[in-house]
Amino acid sequence: MRTISLVAVAVALLQAWPGAARAQAPKSQSVDVIVTAEAALTVDANFRILSPCAVAIQGGTIVAVGSPAEIGRRYTARQKIDRPHSVLMPGLVNTHTHAAMSLLRGIADDRPLMEWLQKYIFPAEAKNVSPSFVRDGTNLAMAEMIRSGTTTFTDMYYFEDDVARAVDAAGMRAVLGETWIDFPAPDNKTHAEASAYTKKFLEAWKGHRRVIAAIAPHAPYTCSAATYQDARKLADAYGAPLLTHLSETQDEQKTILAKYKTTPTRWLDTIGFLGPRLLVAHGVWLSGDDMKLLTQRNVTLSHNPESNMKLGSGIAPIAKAVAAGVVVGLGTDGPAGSNNDFDMFEAMDFAGKLAKVAGLDPTVVPARDLVRMATLDGARCLGLEKRIGSIEVGKEADLIAVDLTSERVRPVYDLASTVVYAAKASDVSLTMVAGRVLFDGHAVKTIDEAATARLADEWHERITRSLGPATDAVARPDSTRK
User: Fold this and answer.
1) What's the chain look like in SS3?
2) CB within 8 Å of 417: residues ≥ 6 apart
3) Are 438 and 170 in contact (CB under 8 A)?
4) Cα–Cα distance between 301 and 229 in angstroms, integer?
5) Mean pLDDT value across the chain
6) Most exposed: 89, 253, 321, 467, by fewest CB within 10 Å?
7) Contacting residues for 309 by C-beta, under 8 A, at least 6 apart
């Protein structure tokens, strides 16, 4: 008869004992990616700063945030990304662009807005804007945005279905507004055509994880009440976002006052346009009553400091807007003369300094608020705050890393201050959207940058020819260029 050792009996009893499985060392869970870094600006409700930090990602969603040791015990990853000298933060949200206009970069600088639009931009667009122009210009813009840490952008332009296809292929996230305007546009010559196109656009991208179709009536000085009302009706039917320009210049204020005897904001309210899911750009000349009205109607604001400075439009009262309860995000505007780049680090920096000099108060709009405007508040402007804008469990893994090794960021006493006032777009060492690496610190992984640059040069030649030799709208090509 076989002898059963006391040790074997003891082991068997322990394994059968209730709760014994819980007493065993837990198995680590497999995830797609673990990202580790020197520190993290989570931009959560408490603006927690973790140092060091690790983020576990599964299916494009953040499943855990903690120290590298803690995350290492709980998870194993198929891909590990380490940025030991960088700070992790949510991807930047650019709340106002005209991305395809990157192909018109610098075409008519140093001119007032209305002259810039009517004498240069509208004619150049009429002769050149097409689906291929939009695709190539959007790719050029996205390559710049991805390299500089922008993961989500808001667009207003033409042929937005082609913009959406480019965004989808590049792996970015975007809210894309098909522009409505009360004269023949490059894509749709009549309001009926624009409406039909937009309905198809809304249907085609309904439910997409990263691409959100929107409607973008251009501005109170280019759109009638009927155009705005039709846009609101269609947006409500689809639950779609709405985008428009508002109170950008003093001339706009005067035009609307003469025509409707009120402010642009009040006029949009009287015709029933103001309401949820509406993001307005600029707001340079909003009155106190206008700001209160935006808050009451749940309308959000995109502040574009560099555009407002470059066009001489004025300084938007963002400190007062925030105090009135308006949610404010940051944008760059288009690169065809109103800013010239898509650099959200510059947008943060200028937004803060302009607010301080406007109020003669160095304490207003501090660095943490500017980081929040460029991330979580930008997401709130787009109705995406439950999905992106902070590093929290359950949110999409839209992350960037900012390198902290260059001389201009050393030493680091305050991470938010360093990011806003010292770091530059060139310090971005990682850009990720929904857990997918779009930029690894060396190259954009989802756009052929060489081909994009070559196409931009070809468009430069084509646009120059289209405008003719007599125009002064186009800077002459560099004579050293081969």
Assistant:
1) CCCCCHHHHHHHHHHHCCCHHHHCCCCCEEEEEEEEEEEEECCCCCCCEECCEEEEEECCEEEEEECHHHHHHHEEEEEEEEEEEEEEEECEEEEEECHHHHHHCCCCCCCCHHHHHHHHHHHHHHHHCCHHHHHHHHHHHHHHHHHCCEEEEEEEECCHHHHHHHHHHHCCEEEEEEEECCCCCCCCCCHHHHHHHHHHHHHHCCCCCCEEEEEEECCCCCCCHHHHHHHHHHHHHHCCCEEEEECCCHHHHHHHHHHHCCCHHHHHHHCCCCCCCEEEEECCCCCHHHHHHHHHCCCEEEECHHHHHHCCCCCCCHHHHHHCCCCEEECCCCCCCCCCCCCHHHHHHHHHHHHHHHHCCCCCCCHHHHHHHHCHHHHHHCCCCCCCCCCCCCCECCEEEEECCCHHHCCCCCHHHHHHHCCCHHHEEEEEECCEEEECCCCECCCCHHHHHHHHHHHHHHHHHHHCCCCCCCCCCCCCCC
2) 367
3) yes
4) 20
5) 92
6) 467
7) 315, 350, 354
Q: What is the pLDDT of residue 12?
A: 46
Q: How far is the CA of 207 from the CAs of 145, 212, 332, in angstroms?
A: 24, 8, 27
Q: Are 113 and 313 in contact (CB under 8 A)?
A: yes
- Rounded to whole angstroms, how far apart are CA atoms 38 and 52? 5
Q: Do 27-90+395-441 and 91-385 agree at the fold level? A: no
pLDDT tens digits for 299-355? 999 999 999 999 999 999 999 999 999 999 999 999 987 889 999 999 999 999 999
pLDDT at position 336: 85
> 86: closest CA among 375, 374, 415, 346?
415
Instruction: Evaluate whether the domain defined by 91-385 bears CATH number 3.20.20.140.
Output: yes
Rounded-to-integer distance, Cα 282 and Cα 266, Å: 16
Count of Cβ atoms closer than 10 Å to residue 374 Cβ = 30
d(CA 390, CA 65): 11
Domain ranges of the chain: 27-90+395-441, 91-385
| 399-432 pLDDT, tens digit each | 999 999 999 999 999 999 999 999 999 999 999 9
Tell me: pLDDT of 54 over 60: yes
At residue 242, what is the residue type? Answer: L
Helix axes 160-170, 191-204, angle to 10 degrees: 20
pLDDT value of position 117: 79
pLDDT digits (tens, 9 = 90+) for 446-458: 999 999 999 999 9
CATH of the domain spanning 27-90+395-441? 2.30.40.10
Count how many residues are written for the chain: 482
